[in-house]
């Protein structure tokens, strides 16, 4: 009798152990399926376009934290996007994912350029920007029609492109990065601040004024202080402006404060009341940001946005200063893929020729002759 009880006890114990093992395996399978479903779900405005495995050189001592970088891509400036991505990719071991915001007519060209060059191993998502979202929000004067591009306003909609991220970087396409993008991503933001920018009165761009475009280093250069709506805001006209070509955004705070809705409000008001300065020189994305982030933004290290290389100011920078810069920005009329930009040779080191042949650099004949 005692022997039978022992056998029954052993049998019951074996069954319990089997059931525990089966339960553990089923939980593991459930977690795997959940991850698989989550990974295949759409992100932003389109599903994931392409995310390869991290190359071996990045797995050693790499940072697992994902760094979302949002950048816009238009066909006529696609070379800039390629150079910017290449410079970031080769100067970091961090887990960078590019969220490339573009229009439908650029997608195939961009995908071909990325897939047929050394950038094929880069992690990226291609997102389509619908210009209809701007209807009733942009006032385009006839003389500015050619300079106003829908993608200029993509930075207003950052949470749409990276909805699950807490923090993201936005950058213009006319930049190259010369240091680890992780440092820029780690820019500290003060409590309650949704974004950080580089001020226009910092040491690298002290009181810079675009000839014929007014005082574009302070608020009066961007907003019409003769308008009552602007005066009611009680913003000092002499307040230093900031450059929105590089943004480090706290997207959690951005959503809590409805920053996108606030920006759209001022865009719509400008259509009705013409609130922007008449000497704006086409920088129509800047005024709404200046209003919404008035004394409510953190600062980026000036070396992470060394700008004006696309204007005459860039010619005054020494080679030593340019080399020390962590991010070079060719804002202004002259782009590094064109004829007359300063330090275009520095930018060109990161440029990858277009395998489709659709995009080519514009260079002076003398430069071509000397290079031979």
From TrEMBL:
User: Pfam family example for this protein?
Assistant: Glyco_transf_8
Q: Does the keyword Transmembrane helix apply?
A: yes
Q: Please give the InterPro entries that the UniProt record associates with this protein.
A: Glyco_trans_8, Glycosyltrans_8_dom-fam, Nucleotide-diphossugar_trans
Q: Which residues form a coiled coil?
A: none
Q: Where in the cell is it found?
A: Membrane
The highest taxon in the source lineage is: Eukaryota
Its membrane topology is listed as: Single-pass type II membrane protein
The record's GO CC annotations read: Golgi apparatus; membrane
The secretion signal range is: none
Main site of residence?
Answer: membrane
Keyword annotations for this protein? Glycoprotein, Glycosyltransferase, Membrane, Signal-anchor, Transferase, Transmembrane, Transmembrane helix
Q: Which GO molecular function entries does the Swiss-Prot or TrEMBL record give?
A: UDP-glycosyltransferase activity
Q: Which family does it belong to?
A: Belongs to the glycosyltransferase 8 family.
**Name of this chain's protein:** Glycosyltransferase 8 domain-containing protein 1
The species this protein belongs to is Mauremys mutica (yellowpond turtle)
């Amino acid at each position: 009798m005692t022997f039978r009880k022992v056998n029954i006890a052993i049998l019951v114990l074996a069954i319990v152990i089997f059931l525990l093992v089966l339960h553990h395996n089923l939980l593991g399978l459930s977690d795997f399926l959940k991850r698989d479903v989550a990974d295949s779900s759409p992100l932003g405005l389109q599903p994931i376009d392409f995310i390869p495995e991290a190359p071996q050189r990045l797995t050693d001592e790499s940072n697992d934290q994902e760094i979302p970088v949002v950048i816009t891509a238009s066909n006529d400036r696609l070379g800039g996007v390629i150079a910017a991505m290449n410079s970031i990719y080769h100067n970091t071991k961090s887990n960078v994912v590019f969220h490339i915001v573009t229009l439908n007519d650029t997608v195939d060209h961009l995908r071909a350029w990325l897939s047929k060059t050394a950038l094929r191993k880069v992690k990226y998502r291609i997102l389509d920007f619908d210009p209809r979202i701007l209807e009733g929000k942009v006032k385009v004067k006839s003389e500015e029609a050619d300079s106003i591009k829908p993608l200029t306003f993509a930075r207003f909609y950052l949470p749409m492109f990276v909805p699950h991220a807490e923090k993201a970087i936005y950058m213009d396409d006319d930049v190259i990065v010369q240091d680890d993008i992780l440092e820029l991503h780690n820019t500290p933001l003060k409590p309650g601040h949704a974004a950080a920018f580089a001020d226009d009165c910092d040491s690298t761009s002290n009181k810079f004024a675009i000839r014929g475009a007014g005082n574009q280093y302070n608020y009066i250069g961007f907003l019409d202080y003769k308008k009552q709506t602007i005066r009611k805001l009680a913003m000092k006209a002499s307040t230093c402006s900031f450059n929105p070509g590089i943004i480090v955004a706290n997207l959690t705070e951005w959503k809590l404060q409805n920053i996108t809705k606030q920006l759209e409000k001022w865009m719509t008001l400008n259509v009705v009341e013409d609130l922007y300065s008449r000497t704006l020189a086409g920088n129509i994305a800047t005024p709404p940001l200046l209003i919404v982030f008035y004394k409510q933004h953190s600062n980026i290290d000036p070396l992470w946005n060394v700008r004006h290389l696309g204007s005459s100011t860039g010619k005054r920078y020494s080679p030593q200063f340019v080399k020390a810069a962590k991010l070079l920005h060719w804002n202004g009329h002259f782009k590094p893929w064109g004829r007359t930009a300063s330090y275009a040779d520095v930018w060109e080191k990161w440029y990858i020729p277009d395998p489709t042949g659709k995009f080519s650099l514009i260079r002076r004949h003398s430069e071509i002759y000397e290079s031979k």
